[in-house]
Amino acid sequence: MKLLFLIVLMYMFDQHKGNRLSNNPRPFEDIKREISDYSEVAKKIINLAVYGKAQNRSYERLALFVDTIGPRLSGSKSLELAIQYMYKALKNDGLENVHLEQVKIPHWERGEESAVMVEPRNHSLAILGLGGSVATPPEGITAEVLVVTSFDELHQRAQEAQGKIVVYNQRYVNYGETVLYRGRGALEAAKVGAKAALIKSITPFSINSPHTGIQSYAVGVPKIPAACISLEDAELIARMSSWGSKVVVTLKMGAKTYPDADSFNTVAEIVGSKYPEQVVLVSGHLDSWDVGQGAMDDGGGAFISWEALSLIKDLGLRPKRTLRLVLWTGEEQGGIGAEQYYKLHKMNISNFDVVMESDEGTFMPSGLAFTGSDEARGIMKEIMKLLKPINITQLFGNGEGTDISYWMKAGVPGASLNDDITKYFWFHHSQGDTMTVQNPMEMNLCAAVWTVVSYVVADMEEKLPV
Ligand SMILES: [Zn+2]
């Protein structure tokens, strides 16, 4: 009986193997050889991007763009101008199928805002209201503060929170973990009867600079105003209150939410020569917060993605599959433009080979983060070896990007740029996100990685296995 079971099992295994072989009949050695044949093309791309004529181009294009347009908040006039600017720029660059795809995005404006400590001494606080926050009454909210270091502490001291302004002085662990205080700070404070929430900015470093970002309310819980304050002010208030001082703050916010606005995802292509319906997507988001210039988040990612298409065009290359650039809109409000793009295009999901997004800075790159099957990972590892001339060959786990997450959740392989993010959150969503934090040589290297990978995946004989 056991033997029979074993025979059946072996038969099934054999069948399974056969199926796999018929889907992917080529031995891995063959695929490896195919990839290593791209080493000359990879060198050409690297030379053009890093040492040749295209050197510093993505940086210079980005500077002209952000210096001309400025920050690009969802629903704002300047985001509209940015999209028109890019439409023209991509056309002038000679790219194909340049077009705009209409979507609806949130429209919130911060208006006038201020916060002043009125007790125990007069001190003006640096604040940035959070995206989607409600306003205070015109005369503001004046209340004593309750300082907490965690949601747990807030819940333990729920009785004390009634009628107060809750100040979160949480410790920064990492962005992913600590950002919960920005996202849910007002909601949790409102549940225990607070009048407003002031949250220590989500950053490990500060020169009295508040950082904004999106936050959310919940049905059935009162909406209270929410803003981020600087590390320095959060710690000042915490120290004063630990000495037993009564700290009173007057918060004024003129924020307003308008009906959703018309906007667009901006698209350009190099149409594939053999499988034009199949797509390798490279992307970054065009919108930003309303402070700084949005040069880092995500101007850099958007412009190295454009650069990938420019470099391939300049070298006279045309991959077998279509290389598609998408500049997303409404990302900062929660990937709103990308979600509508996914809904519109998901019926063609089997044609999407890989989706790529760069949205964590374009600092010194170390490689690529990738989400996909083990087989696909093996192929990507080989492709990364083509970047040996600039020594940026690492393949990490977990490709990331709000805008490409819809596709990755549905099983499409996804990749994001891995770079040195040591300083990323110093500037993120703050007045400090300007061209001054960008570096042309680092952008050249990022563009080279982005271009080699997207070109080779788009040109290989077969799509990445899922
Ligand atoms: Zn971003």
TrEMBL record:
Residue ranges of the Peptidase M28 domain? 265-449
CDD domains annotated for this entry? M28_Pgcp_like (cd03883)
> Gene symbol?
CPQ
Gene Ontology terms: cellular component: endoplasmic reticulum; extracellular space; Golgi apparatus; lysosome
- Under which name does UniProt file this protein? Carboxypeptidase Q
Kindly give the InterPro entries that the UniProt entry links to this protein.
CPQ, Peptidase_M28
Tell me which UniProt keywords the record has, alphabetically: Carboxypeptidase, Endoplasmic reticulum, Glycoprotein, Golgi apparatus, Hydrolase, Lysosome, Metal-binding, Metalloprotease, Protease, Secreted, Signal, Zinc, Zymogen
The signal peptide here is 1-18
Q: What does this protein do?
A: Carboxypeptidase that may play an important role in the hydrolysis of circulating peptides. Catalyzes the hydrolysis of dipeptides with unsubstituted terminals into amino acids. May play a role in the liberation of thyroxine hormone from its thyroglobulin (Tg) precursor.
The organism of origin for this protein:
Anolis carolinensis (Green anole)
Lyase among the record's keywords? no
Localization annotation? Endoplasmic reticulum; Golgi apparatus; Lysosome; Secreted
Record family assignment: Belongs to the peptidase M28 family.
Question: What subunit structure does UniProt give?
Answer: Homodimer. The monomeric form is inactive while the homodimer is active.
| Superkingdom field | Eukaryota
Grouped into one coarse class, the protein's main location is endoplasmic reticulum
MF terms in GO: carboxypeptidase activity; metal ion binding; metallodipeptidase activity; protein homodimerization activity
| One GO biological process term | peptide catabolic process
